[in-house]
Amino acid sequence: ILITNRGITPIGIGGASEGCSVVGLDPDWAEGELRIYPNPSGGSFHVDWEQSFSRLEVFTLDGKTVLTRTYTFPRFSEEVNIRLAAGLYLLRVSNNLYLRYSRLLIE
Question: What's the confidence (pLDDT) of residue 92?
Answer without folding.
Answer: 95
